[in-house]
Design a protein that fits this description.
The structure holds two protein chains of two kinds. By secondary structure, chain A is of the alpha+beta class. Chain A contains eight helices and 21 strands. Chain B has a two-stranded antiparallel ribbon with strand order 1-2. The two termini of chain B are 38 Å apart. In chain B, 33% of the residues are buried. Classes of the chains: A alpha+beta, B mainly alpha.
């Protein structure tokens, strides 16, 4: 394919007055990839997407699409389509006219437009709503209309700015799966902005994690989950996210809240460390860290137990209903392999 | 009942009663210069209009005056609003400045233009044209130019109204829709034609309706600037009715002319409001 949808961003800097929104972003996205930009609000992920779309001027850096520098090009000249968080449908046009708009603007023949519009509408199951106006559609239907408007032009790049955030929880899960199938079927590159780590982890081939205008980690979801690059990423990914506890490493011995624990196989200087353990890796045992049960949240198939360990709340997740009650004094333990070690000063991961 | 009765009485006394009296007068022959001919005339005053060239002339002027001032107000108002919208700061000052002509009494506007702007030799326009080496014109005294001048005066006073309404409408448009249009490959002109215009159409329609109703019954500014003259060069229907009643003291015929103007205004408004609801 000539227009494969290979994205390459180099040294993207964006400032709003004295505030720097993006500190030199570098990003490479392969053709056909479903790529998520994940981060909390204000981390720069939406700005990055808007720069990619050409909606936002940048202060430094270069945007390349399929090897061509498009930094100075208008959004319409980039052959990219976008689904906005607000959907941004044309309120005075019918669904049909909305979907036809990108084709009409470049003078596509009527018959061809008609076929493409009906085809796109059928793909997202709104072919029975073509005569309606956006104001007469439900949120989910508006979202599909926005999707159809994006896919009708068969762009090389599909930009999605939190497209599911305005849907209710059930619809969000369904649409997520459909979106993924649609992208696969079209074979188009998709860049997807979300603040929902679960969404990013389930939908994306690869994820870039944004924090304070920087990309802190890029990788496959399972790799980011298994080996978060920093303690901040660790505390952002997972549901509930990783527990982080201050600990001490001395002469190969690990101490948490004064309790010695079997040390993991990890290199590292002696001194204070940040110890990370996923909630699912914790279990209630005979021996281990003394803790007090703070709260038991029963979610049906899983239970989350909030534990007070030396004044800090950590979370434990288990599939079996634990035989504990709020206020109980228990011990928690975990396997040495489940430990993640981070530098408490820089937050960087220490490798074993 | 007891609560709104006073209001109802006031309304009837101040609006309905004079209207009924006007309608009744229009059916009478009351010519104060020939009082001995007074009496009931039936439709006589109305039938007389058909053969009255001055009536048709004033009707024609009313049409030209209304259409041209409304079109000019909409075009200039929209153009100005689009320009001002691009100014990042200081829009507030422009909005306040735009209100000034609107709050002036039309009589003041007419006099101000007659004495300071359009007067021969000393008027602002003449000073400028002569400084540029262009010939001097008698803007209000020349029958060919007088109509242009009163159209300019009305447009000057009321374009700010159109401008303010359009500006408010334009600034309330959702920015993401325009971003979507940019991504959808719409050029600046296409965005204006297919997004901006349809979205501000309600504002344009309401400006057209309101300004048409006012322009049809315009009076004070023209009265102060030209008095309908020179001759009958700026004598729109409203001025003709006034002159007939109060200069020529033919009250019956003047009332009939006023009734015709009222009927035209009501009919045009009715048609416009219907058209507005149709889409």
């Amino acid at each position: 394919m000539a227009n494969a949808g290979r994205v390459s961003m180099r040294g993207i800097v964006k400032r709003h007055g004295s505030f720097t929104a993006l500190h030199g972003i570098d990003l490479d996205i392969a053709p056909g990839e479903f790529f998520a930009l994940l981060g909390p609000s204000g981390s720069g992920k939406t700005t990055t997407l808007r720069i990619l779309a050409g909606l936002e001027p940048l202060d430094a850096g270069q945007v390349m699409l399929d090897g061509v520098d498009v930094t100075a090009r208008e959004p319409g000249e980039r052959d990219v389509a976008m689904v906005f968080q607000s959907y941004a449908l044309y309120p005075h046009m019918t669904v049909y006219e909305n979907i036809a708009f990108p084709l009409r603007m470049v003078g596509t023949a009527k018959g061809e437009t008609d076929r493409a519009v009906k085809d796109a509408a059928a793909k997202v199951h709104i072919d029975h709503l073509l005569a309606r106006r956006p104001g007469e559609l439900s949120g989910g239907q508006q979202q599909r209309c926005a999707l159809a408007r994006a896919i009708v032009r068969k762009p090389r790049l599909f930009l999605l700015d939190e497209p599911l955030s305005n849907l209710d929880a059930k619809l969000r899960l369904e649409t997520r799966v459909e979106l993924r199938k649609l992208q696969r079927a079209l074979g188009v590159t998709a860049v997807y902005v979300t603040h929902d780590q679960e969404e990013a982890m389930t939908i994306a081939d690869r994820v870039a994690v944004f924090m304070d205008g920087r990309i802190v980690q890029v990788g496959r979801p399972q790799d980011i989950f298994a080996r978060p690059a920093t303690s901040v990423v660790a505390a952002f990914i997972g549901s509930p996210p990783m527990n982080l506890l201050p600990a001490d490493l001395r002469d190969g011995e690990l101490r948490v809240a004064g309790v010695p624990l079997p040390a993991p196989r990890m290199a590292g200087r002696d001194g204070p460390i940040t110890l990370g353990v996923r909630p699912a890796a914790l279990r209630i045992a005979e021996r281990g860290l003394p803790a007090r049960v703070y709260l038991v949240e029963n979610l049906g198939d899983t239970t989350i137990v909030d534990l007070d360990v030396a004044g800090q709340v950590i979370k434990l997740r288990t599939e079996q209903a634990p035989n504990v009650r709020e206020g109980d004094h228990v011990h928690v333990a975990f396997a040495p392999e489940a430990m993640h070690v981070f530098d408490p000063a820089t937050g960087q991961r220490r490798e074993g | 009942m007891a609560l709104f009765l006073p209001a109802l009485v006031v309304l009837i006394v101040t609006t309905s009663a004079p209207l009924v009296y006007l309608a009744w007068t229009s059916l009478e022959r009351i010519d104060l210069s020939m009082p001995w001919l007074s009496g009931f005339a039936g439709a006589g005053n109305y039938l007389q209009m058909g053969a009255d060239p001055r009536f048709w002339h004033s009707l024609w002027l009313t049409l030209i005056y209304t259409v041209s001032t409304v079109v000019l107000q909409v075009l200039l108002g929209l153009g100005l609003a689009l320009l001002v919208l691009r100014i990042p700061k200081g829009q507030g000052i422009l909005r306040v400045a735009a209100i000034l002509p609107i709050v002036l009494a039309p009589v003041v506007v007419g006099l101000f233009w007659r004495t300071l702007v359009l007067a021969p030799d000393v008027g602002l326009v003449d000073v400028v044209t002569r400084a540029l080496g262009l010939p001097s014109y008698n803007w209000l005294g020349d029958p060919k130019l007088a109509l242009l001048s009163v159209i300019a005066i009305h447009t000057w006073q009321w374009t700010p109204f159109a401008f303010l309404v359009m500006l408010a409408s334009l600034s309330s448009l959702p920015p993401d829709v325009f971003e979507a249009a940019r991504i959808d490959r719409a050029s600046a002109w296409q965005r204006f034609r297919y997004i901006t215009l349809p979205l501000i159409r309600p504002a344009i329609v309401i400006v057209v309706i309101m300004r048409t109703m006012i322009a049809l019954s315009a009076f004070a500014a023209i009265f102060a600037a030209t008095g309908g003259g020179p001759g009958t060069a700026t004598e729109i229907l409203n001025l003709y009715a006034y002159r007939t009643s109060f200069s020529e003291l033919n009250l019956g015929y003047g009332a009939a002319l006023a009734m015709v103007l009222l009927a035209i205004t009501l009919a045009v408004s009715f048609v416009m409001f219907r058209a507005r609801r149709a889409r």
